[in-house]
Amino acid sequence: MKLDSIVEYMDGFLGVRGHPDYAPAMNGLQVEGRSEIARVAAAVDTSVATITAAKEADADLLLVHHGLFWGGSAPLTGPLFRRVRTLLEGDVALYSCHLPLDGHPEVGNCALLAKELGLRTDASTRVGTYKDTPIGWWGTLPEPGGVDDLAQRLRDVVDGPVHVIPGGPERVERVGVVTGGGASFVQEAARLGLDALVTGEGAHHTHIDAMEWGIHVLFGGHYATETFGVRALAEHVSERFGLDWIFIDRPTGL
Predict the structure, then answer these.
(1) Quick check: 50 and 65 in contact, CB under 8 A?
(2) pTM of full prediction above 0.70
(3) How far apart are alpha carbons 175 and 216 in whole angstroms?
């Protein structure tokens, strides 16, 4: 399958054009590779390790959530040079998608994590607004319980540790999900009347914000909460175009 055809489809499916994001995200095709694609790899982060793994797995296209250019415009030296060199040496194309993937209703990190947690959501239950565009989702638990119950459910889903800031009510029913670094949306979640916000990580002041706004905040890890989208996107694209795909798991512990 032609790389151009896959890129055109993903740009439209994800709504990349016109979707607000941080300037260094540079959503879309970041590095060209082979014109013919037979195998797709997916990874959360762009690193020499993930690129090398994609090359060793004979992948022609690497789909990532965090791309190359988070440092903004910079000389092509050091780690950035090594990443680009590894891509070029392996003839591996790189496609990156950040906030459009976080907020996508079908293959998005937030929607999929909310589903895994068992939340009941609909098109109107959105939380975490960036430049007037919602990123996260909130929903209700079919069997409300305590924050410890929600924390255990999150541990099971991300298969890792969870940090709880116990600022909310005893009964937890309305839960928001903004994956990655979504702790900045504590106040918005509290104003929506949510009992808890699930995210990946947050700043030190998140503890004070959560306690004083009266909402639980659960950190499941930036990496761990953002594996869902790239895996779902790779599977979707592979099924549509008849390609093989693999997931490259390189946890950061953060």
Answers:
(1) no
(2) yes
(3) 9
